[in-house]
# Entry
Amino acid sequence: MDLHIFLLLLTLFLVTTRFILKRRVTKNQPPGPTGLPIIGNLHQLGPKPHCALSTMAQTYGPIMSLRLGLVNVAVASSPAVAQEILQRNDQAFANRPIPESVAAQPNVGDTIAWAPADPRWRNRRRVCTTRIFTAQRLDLLQHLRHRKVQELVHHLRKQASKGKSVEIGELAFATMLNLISNTVFSEDLVDSEFKSAGEFKELVWRIMEDAGRINLSDYFPLLKPMDLQGVRRHVAVSYVRLHKIFDHLIRQRVAERQSTRAAKGDFLDVLLDQCEQGDPSDFTVETIKPLILDLFIAGSDTSGSTSEWAMAELLRNPKVMQKAREELIQVIGSSNVEVTESDIPKLPYIQAIVKETLRLHPPVPLLLPYVAGHDVEVSGYTIHKGNQVLINAWSIGRNPQFWDEPLLFQPERFLRSNIDFKGRDFEYLPFGGGRRICPGLPLANRMITLMLAVFLHSFEWELPEGVTSQTLDMSEHYGITLKKLSPLSAIPISV
Ligand code: HEM
# Structure
């Protein structure tokens, strides 16, 4: 065949296929902004996609569609639409698209956060909710976390005696890593004196950074094999090293269990019990490593940055800080009595501060993405099979339709209402909802509340010279978690 005729036929074929596909894909799609050729709406997301999407929702409504490169995305921005997705159609949206920075890890199918919602995932979730994150298990291991938090107090007292300021976010991140590592392995993985960053912290941090980068391969799947920005290659090194560290800890524990038979009762013991008892296709020394890694990645930065935002809000709102300290003194007593996790139920105001912080500063503002397993009707529109779905929890938590004076930091609002973050109140979803709700919620709640209570009970806090509660910068930085753009520095004063 003549080359020109061949090219003409090929062009006709491509144009027709594109037309048919586009019709199928856009039929009854939710409204949304018109995009540019090729990149679609990618350029409209800007550095703070949660804010840009919130503004767009004012024009296009609580369910809208965008095209990010070659990927169609539906965005929900109201409690009613979130409920339709997380509750009424939870089965259709049970799976997640896997970003390339996540797919780079060994055995990604054995994670909890990214594995398809198949029976193996259900089994791992079941073990998490019935054996790992239970009140009994968390109570059993609380002495380890308590010890870590006391070390933090010791460190802060030293800084206080020198009148030095501390970086709250960095300390909180390192402490959260150690609280999780003690809960999982009964061991510290980060230097408890906070002197050196430590390899483990660096590795977890590097994974976070790589995962937070915009990667073209996620929006143009054809580019995946080329890994043009090198994200996959770069992040894979950190994953492999972390797997090696876990491998060493796991093998050491397996040997200990064989020789002494004395159980520590930590998460690793629970998982190794499963390896011994359960179906080997679900739990083996190999397949528990991605699960353990998930706990560190999902739990440390989220909990650390929540603690930093809480302290920033308290430094901006001295009356709230004062009220919180009064509650602590009344319930616990003077600062030489130690706060423990078992005190948390007696501290409603501190709990309300944590809730209010998570309303204004949800660390995962768009939750984790979902993918439609088949065509689904939501609010009268069709979300087509394969389309991705985001829920703008940040926007919902700041919407004046659902919250009075939403931009004010007022923990009292949670004392007056029964709204909780357990996924049943769709106007407040910092931990998500439905079948993929955060399984680490009970641990996160304990760790953040304990750390905050200890910060406030043992110290008074001041802002460094030149910064006042009115000038404290509260700008956000959007990455894998929503953090403070300028790290919070504050001076502890021992009381
Ligand atoms: C302030 C702290 C935390 C926040 C705000 C948070 C938030 C979230 C959110 C929004 C999701 C997605 C839920 C959804 O898709 O509906 C999630 C999933 C997850 N979180 Fe958390 N999280 C926190 C702490 C933790 C901790 C401490 C752990 C474990 C140690 C953890 C483990 C996980 C895991 C494994 C998933 C994936 C669940 C799945 O896909 O089945 N998180 N988290």
